Amino acid sequence: MSEVIPSPNIWGSPDVYEVENRGVDRDHVIESAMRSVLDWAGADVVDIGCGTGYHLPYFARDARSVVGVEPHPPLAELARQRVAGMPSCSVREEGAAAVGVGDGSFDVAHARWAYFFGPGCEPGLAELDRVVRPGGAAFVIDNDATRSTFGQWFRRALPSYDPRAVERFWERQGWRRERLDIRWDFDSRADFEAVVGIEFAPEHADLILAEHPDATGVDYAVNLWWRRY
Ligand SMILES: C[S@@+](CC[C@H](N)C(=O)[O-])C[C@H]1O[C@@H](n2cnc3c(N)ncnc32)[C@H](O)[C@@H]1O
């Protein structure tokens, strides 16, 4: 199994992360950008680092099959529970560097805020080369810390993060990038506060909430990195 990268947000608070997922990109900007590269209708899809499997039923609406890959056992179990009774969906307790399926098993690979964070994810990229069929596509969704309100919070909380180094990494790998502007919107201030509280250390969360006393959402820039096979 590849090195497991701790995710304190979803590992510690899967219920709040569920609220977060429901508030991410309600306008489906990411979905539209992905579909314009390769539509997954009738395709075999893998979601790497699927967490609690939030996106599995969503892919299953159009895909032929959907496999969630998740190395953290409690989350893999939650993902299994989510897709119980959905015959086209399954979950593998594996990591990105060894997905544990045959060569050329998938048409589309998707990884959202999971494992593929730039330098260090080379073993997972080699595994994508193995498991994605010729003609297929892989998508990685991650923060664009150079832009947006959320990006400013992210860089303030993580000053050592070097977005340019991440961009150079993907460019060296020959991946392409769509700069996307999405929203992070919640139904109530309580939800917003809870989600800020799992994404940021207490001193940063307090600052964010003090600076945005009435907010229930903000603008959020992300990069959609992708390549065809
Ligand atoms: C921030 S969560 C995102 C979960 C999911 N993609 C979503 O959008 O709901 C990151 C996930 O990556 C998983 N992860 C950690 N190391 C991994 C690895 N080596 N391979 C695949 N996934 C990994 C974590 O356990 C966690 O579930």
UniProtKB/TrEMBL annotation:
Enumerate the InterPro entries for this protein.
Methyltransf_11, Methyltransf_Superfamily, SAM-dependent_MTases_sf
Q: Which GO terms describe its molecular function?
A: S-adenosylmethionine-dependent methyltransferase activity
Does the entry feature the keyword Metal-binding, yes or no?
no
Q: What is one Gene Ontology biological process annotated in the Swiss-Prot or TrEMBL record? A: methylation
Q: Which domain of life does the protein's organism represent?
A: Bacteria
Is Methyltransferase among the key words of this record? yes
**The Methyltransferase type domain, residue ranges:** 46-139
Q: Which Pfam families did the record assign?
A: Methyltransf_11
What keywords sit in the KW lines? Methyltransferase, Transferase
Name assigned to this protein: Methyltransferase type 11
